[in-house]
Amino acid sequence: MIDSHTHLGACRKPAEVLVRDAATAGVRRIVTVGTDPDSCADALTTAVGFPEVYAAIGCHPNNAELLDEDHLRRDARHARCVAVGETGLDYYRDRSPRDAQQRAFEFQISLARETGKALVIHTRDAADDTLRTLHSQAQDLRVMLHCFSMPERLDECLEAGWWISFAGNVTYRANEELANAVERVPSERLLVETDAPYLAPQSRRGKPNEPAFVRETAEFVAARRGTSYAELEASVGASAAALFNW
After folding, report:
1. Quick check: helix, strand or coil at residue 67?
2. Residue 94's pLDDT is what?
3. Containing H/E element for 41?
4. How far apart are CA 118 and CA 76, in angstroms?
């Protein structure tokens, strides 16, 4: 299985333990995500140190005022970087001014195009503006909607050809609409993730998440889709390879 989005540097355990435990659980590849200059540097260092780990380099919307275009451009060109982001818009916390979020978002779209790498999207309480920006500026890019939380917009996202990644919250009993969306995503656009240390799946809810636990989310997704775990693992592997170009 593949954990398509995690934050190894934010987890309590050291990277070597997280990677080892993930491998024991059958997780073959991990994408660890930077959200500011320091975490981007850490993600690249970890990706260089472990062959199973790749980096995504970005400026999270909550950190939009920390955007350093030259730094991001340099990091995004690194051989171990497979994606730009996470980027997007977050109106839930509004930790950065919305105009700064939009500027950072648009820069990272252009950077993904410049480098030929995937674009990883975070959106929270900002679906209209996020999707409007993607439709107008990212039509030719490989786009992943991380921690997908817009089941009411699923058809629109699938029509655009974007990848849909489900995190541990899809397993929560109150998220039936999101679980229903799992059943409708084509296998070539389906991914699973942990977003560790956040959003642990149902059996570990409220506890720190880690890449090994993506297996529980994947088992839930396989059951909802009426397929075997092995079949899901194969399709997720192919989907991730097409997105991240590894």
Report:
1. coil
2. 80
3. helix 37-49
4. 10
